[in-house]
């Protein structure tokens, strides 16, 4: 289900769209940066600080509305990717199970740069902000309900072992193996050979 979800992002051109949106927002940020540079210019009867202030205002408003548009587009593309994944796999319970596990674990990022690329993740990487308008992913519960209407609304409980593994980065592979029920990968045991 997860692979089908990510594959559908590629097939539907979501990565290309996301990169374009990031480029447009970066361009608007550049306007605000140029405005900051111009506002520092000195001189008598110099009109550049006024132009700089205008660019800062335009850049700030542009970034605000650009992020709103980026988040709204991303939320809709997530629903499309979920539906496409179910269409590819013909197994809505596979993706539903993965989303339930993601909802139980959480997917918050603790980085000041998380907002720049959080629309490229599987779940919402940011805290809810401003009534969810800046959320790049729909709530997990809505996504699960859209593909599995019979879902009872409860997320799986995490065992103490899983919580400990989440808090300990060294045990991340063990956690993921337990979550997806695949034994952890072990390096192949190759017997030593001697060269004569």
Characterization of this structure:
- There is one protein chain.
- The model has no long low-confidence stretch (mean pLDDT 80).
- This protein starts with a helix and ends in a 16-residue tail after the last helix.
- It is built from eight helices and no strands.
- The chain is 62% helix and 0% strand.
- It has 196 residues and is mainly α.
- Helix 2 (14-39) runs antiparallel to helix 3 (48-89) and helix 4 runs antiparallel to helix 6.
Quick overview:
With 196 residues, the chain is mainly α.
Oligomer: single chain
Radius of gyration: 23 Å
List unreliable stretches of 5+ residues. none
Amino- and carboxy-terminal Cα gap: 51 Å
Strand content: under 5%
Specify the number of helices. 8
Report on the biggest sheet.
none
Supply database-style keywords.
mainly alpha; 8 helices; 196 residues
